[in-house]
Queue: 3 jobs
Job 1
Amino acid sequence: MKTFMTNAESIDKKWYVVDASGQTLGRFASEIAKILIGKNKTTFTPGVDAGDYVIVINAEKIEVTGKKESQKMYRRHTGYIGGLKEVVYKDMMAKHPDRIITAAVKGMLPKNKLGRHMLSKMKVYAGSEHNHQAQNPEVLELNK
């Protein structure tokens, strides 16, 4: 009996549309990460990008629990001395709601080349419109 190992040629990649309205941020991001990694498939192989493409719509309608809206911070560094920039969740949601979901999913992916490639297969849109109709995406319902 031989162990089946998936290679790049044998992977069938699909496109999914996921609606973020009314979803909790962390639980939603973990489901998206599973799809991007390919853990929802029976042919999952670590070290191979077997995941599917995900289109997230209505990113501005994502929810958080507790006091995270006023306490959660997003940090980045400019590269200069004293260049730490901090933005509160509420301000980030007002300006760039797509970056909130991207940051949450990025933290759940592998921290290497493969993880960066997996993240590039996710497209996040603040509204309900997207420009990927040519890929014939399937609507995917996630549990709340």
Note: The domain at 14-64+96-139 is CATH 3.90.1180.10 (Ribosomal Protein L13p; Chain: A;).
Job 2
Amino acid sequence: MVGAAPGAANTGKLPYVFMSDAKPRRIRSVSGIVFDSAGRLLLAQRGSGPAIGLWSLPGGKVESGETDEQALIRELREETGLYVTVGRLRFTVHRPSAGSVYEIHCYDCAAHGGQPRPGDDATALRWVDAAAFQALDAEGSLTEGLGVTLRQHAALPH
């Protein structure tokens, strides 16, 4: 906030600036990289929040007291209807959004039950092969940077 210093009105003194040392709030989140037996990648169409309507990896926020693994199991069950086993951390990305930064930890996951169905924050689910993924990327239907990030970390569908 910029304003005149007390008593500085019409004196020609420079205004002062209030600076905030507050860092953006970090929101820990998780996403799952899930492939089917044909090597297709599971994508969820976002039904709320940032990037509504775009396709992304399924996942969500880590709740207080949860581990990443617990959050990912819960989020994928709520969002996709699938039961998953969580594997290794593949990569982490940081996404700024309205004064916050989403710190998204992306893990390899294997589905071992349940029926795929959109739920919670997903309006649709889609298993995509390499051609379908490339088409979504080319038309701008993926969340920002998803294509580049998955390419960098060798996590593309076959």
Note: The mean pLDDT is 89.
Job 3
Amino acid sequence: MKFVFTIFAVFAVAAFITSGCQEGSRLGRPREDETARRGRKTIAHYGCGSCHTIPGIRGADAMVGPPLEHIASRTYIAGVLQNTHQNLFTWLKNPPAVDAKTAMPNLHLSDAEAADVAAYLYTLR
């Protein structure tokens, strides 16, 4: 009987601890705020996963462009920009304007969309 109670207690504590978790935190990423959640949806909407592997995005497992796991921990964006929030925003707004040789197209993201995508990508540490 004591063993059954102990197992029950372990499961109850685990359920309590994970009940407040959001998808990102269960996958080893920081919790997403509303901006990052919109960014995740924007990434899916624009089909970024057709070129990149992006954790947390269903079907984003392509290898045309670089994989984006740990993008927030990298020193450079696309090998040409220091990895800052402003530079990532600039890159997302118009990659060919930053590097004319990039294969990444200008998706014509709005300022809000670029900010949201940057917020999501910065959850990928």
Note: The chain has two domains: 1-26, 32-121.
